C-alpha cells in the first residue's frame, strides 16, 4: 500500500494521532536512519553505521511517520520488542515523503531535520536504488543493544550529549562490534586485507591503516563545538562526550567512550571509560583517571569542578570541587592518607555534611575521602607518606584557550 500525500499541517497532525492511536503502538525511545559500511568479504557483516541525525526522546511525530511508512511498505513491526531494525527501501522513502509533504518546501531547520533526511534519500533514489546500504533502527527501550546499528545510535547519543554519560545501556557492545582496520572513515575487514594483501601491495592500492579497533574515532562522526579543540584525532574515541570549551592536547591525552567532560576542561592525560571531569578542571600531562575496570572496584570516578590532577598522577576515587592531586602520586581506594588535626578541621569546613571524628593523627583510606571538596593530596618527600591538606590555591583555566 502507499501513503496518500498529506496536504496540510493540520492533516499531518491528525495523521500522526491516528498512527499513534493504533492498537499496540509504542513510541520509540530513540530512532534514526543510517548509511552502513558492509564487509568487503562478507556483506552481511556491518562494519559501521553513520547517522546524519539521531532522535533521542524527541520528534515522536517523525517516528510515527517513519513507522507507518515501513508498515505501508509491507514491514511487520513488533512494538513489544526492545529494538527493531529494517532496510530503508525506495517504497518506504516514497511513503514517508508523502506524509511529510506539508514540510518539504520549508526552510531547513532543527524541527525539520528528519524531513531533510527523507528528502536527501528521495534524491538518491532518483539516481540509484537504495539497495541495502541504508538502515533504520528503533529503540523502544534502553536495553542491551542487539545490532551494530543500535550500538552506534547509542554512541552518537553520548557524543552529541543527547544522553548523559553512564546513562545508556551498552552491555555486550564489544561482542557486537567488529574489529576492523580504519583508513580515514572507511573500515576494512582484516580477513579481506589478508586475502588481498599481495594484489593490493603490488598495485600500490594497500590502504594507509590509521588504527585497528572496534570503535571509530570521535571526529569521524561528530562535529564538535566551535570552541572545542582536539589536536590529535586519535585521542578521542567515539562515544566520548566533550563539553564546549574542552581542549584535548596531543601526547599522553585520551578520552574513552562513555567518558568525558561536563564543562571547559584542559585534557593532557587519560580519562578512562565511565570517568567524568567537571568544568574548570585540568587533567595534567600523563595523569590518569581510572575506569571501572582498572582499580576502582567497579565504582565510576567523577572529578569535580576546578580540580588539578598533576602530571603523571593516578586518581581512582571521585574528587569533589577544588581538589589537587600532586604530580606523580596515586590516590586509590585503598591508599592510606594521613591528615593532621588542624588540616582535617579546615577540610571539614568545606564539607559540612561530613560526620567524622577528629583525632590528633588521622589516617584514612582513599575511599573514605571520595567526593570530598577542597583536598590537596601530597607526598611527604622525606617519609614517602601520602598526606592531605586543605587546598589553598584556586585552579583556573586560561579563558582565552577555552
Care to describe what's here?
The protein is α/β, with parallel strands linked by helices and 402 residues long. The chain has three domains: 9-178, Alpha-Beta Plaits, CATH 3.30.70; 183-213, no CATH class; 219-401, Hexapeptide repeat proteins (UDP N-Acetylglucosamine Acyltransferase, domain 1), CATH 2.160.10. It has helices spanning 9-20, 60-72, 90-99, 101-104, 113-127, 148-159, 173-176, 190-195, 197-202, 341-349; strands at residues 30-38, 46-56, 83-87, 134-139, 180-183, 186-189, 211-213, 229-230, 247-248, 254-255, 260-261, 266-267, 270-271, 276-277, 282-283, 288-289, 302-303, 308-309, 314-315, 324-325, 330-331, 336-340, 361-365, 375-379, 386-390. Strands 8-9-12-15-18-20-24-25 form an eight-stranded mixed beta sheet. Helix 1 crosses helix 2. The longest helix has 15 residues, at 113-127.
> What CATH first level of the largest domain would be assigned?
Mainly Beta
Q: Helical percent range? A: 10-25%
By CATH, the superfamily of the largest domain comes out as Hexapeptide repeat proteins
CATH fold name of the largest domain: UDP N-Acetylglucosamine Acyltransferase, domain 1
Number of domains: 3
Strand order of the largest sheet: 8-9-12-15-18-20-24-25
Q: What is the CATH-assigned architecture of the largest domain?
A: 3 Solenoid
Radius of gyration: 26 Å
Largest sheet entry: 8 strands, mixed
- Number of helical regions: 10
Give the uncertain stretches in residue-range form: none
Beta strand %: 15-25%
Shape: elongated
| SS content category | alpha/beta
Mean pLDDT: 94
Counted beta strands: 25
Distance between the termini: 54 Å
Amino acid at each position: 500500500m502507499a501513503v496518500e500525500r498529506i496536504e496540510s499541517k493540520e492533516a499531518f497532525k491528525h495523521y500522526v494521532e491516528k498512527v499513534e492511536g493504533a492498537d499496540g503502538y509504542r513510541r520509540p525511545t530513540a530512532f534514526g536512519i543510517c548509511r552502513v559500511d558492509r564487509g568487503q568479504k562478507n556483506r552481511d557483516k556491518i562494519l559501521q553505521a553513520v547517522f546524519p541525525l539521531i532522535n533521542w526522546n524527541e520528534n515522536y511525530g517523525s517516528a510515527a511517520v517513519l513507522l507507518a511508512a515501513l508498515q505501508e511498505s509491507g514491514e511487520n513491526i513488533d512494538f513489544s520488542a526492545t529494538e527493531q531494525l529494517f532496510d530503508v527501501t525506495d517504497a518506504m522513502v516514497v511513503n514517508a515523503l508523502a506524509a511529510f509533504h506539508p514540510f518539504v518546501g520549508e526552510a531547513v531547520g532543527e524541527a525539520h531535520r528528519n524531513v531533510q533526511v527523507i528528502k536527501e534519500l528521495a534524491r538518491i533514489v532518483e539516481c540509484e536504488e537504495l539497495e541495502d546500504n541504508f538502515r533504520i533502527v528503533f529503540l523502544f527501550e534502553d536495553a542491551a543493544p542487539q545490532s551494530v546499528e543500535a550500538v552506534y545510535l547509542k554512541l552518537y547519543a553520548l557524543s552529541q550529549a543527547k544522553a548523559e554519560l553512564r546513562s545508556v545501556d551498552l552491555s555486550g557492545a564489544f561482542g557486537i562490534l567488529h574489529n576492523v582496520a580504519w583508513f580515514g572513515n572507511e573500515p576494512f575487514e582484516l580477513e579481506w586485507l589478508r586475502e588481498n594483501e599481495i594484489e593490493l601491495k603490488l598495485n600500490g592500492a594497500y590502504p594507509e591503516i590509521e588504527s585497528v579497533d572496534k570503535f571509530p574515532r570521535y571526529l569521524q562522526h561528530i562535529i564538535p563545538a566551535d570552541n572545542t579543540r582536539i589536536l590529535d584525532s586519535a585521542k578521542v574515541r567515539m562515544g566520548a562526550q566533550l563539553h564546549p570549551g574542552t581542549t584535548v592536547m596531543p601526547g599522553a591525552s585520551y578520552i574513552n567512550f562513555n567518558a568525558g567532560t561536563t564543562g571547559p576542561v584542559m585534557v593532557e592525560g587519560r580519562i578512562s571509560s565511565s570517568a567524568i571531569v567537571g568544568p574548570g578542571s585540568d587533567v595534567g600531562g600523563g595523569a590518569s583517571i581510572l575506569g571501572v575496570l582498572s582499580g576502582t572496584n567497579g565504582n565510576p570516578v567523577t572529578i569535580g569542578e576546578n580540580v588539578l590532577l598533576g602530571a603523571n598522577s593516578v586518581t581512582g576515587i571521585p574528587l569533589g570541587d577544588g581538589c589537587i592531586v600532586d604530580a606523580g602520586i596515586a590516590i586509590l581506594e585503598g591508599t592510606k592518607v594521613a591528615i593532621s588535626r588542624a588540616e582535617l578541621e579546615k577540610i571539614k569546613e568545606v564539607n559540612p555534611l561530613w560526620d567524622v571524628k577528629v583525632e590528633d593523627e588521622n589516617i584514612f583510606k582513599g575511599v573514605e575521602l571520595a567526593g570530598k571538596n577542597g583536598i590537596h593530596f601530597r607526598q611527604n618527600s622525606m617519609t614517602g607518606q601520602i598526606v592531605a591538606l586543605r587546598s589553598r590555591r584556586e585552579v583556573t583555566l586560561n579563558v582565552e584557550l577555552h
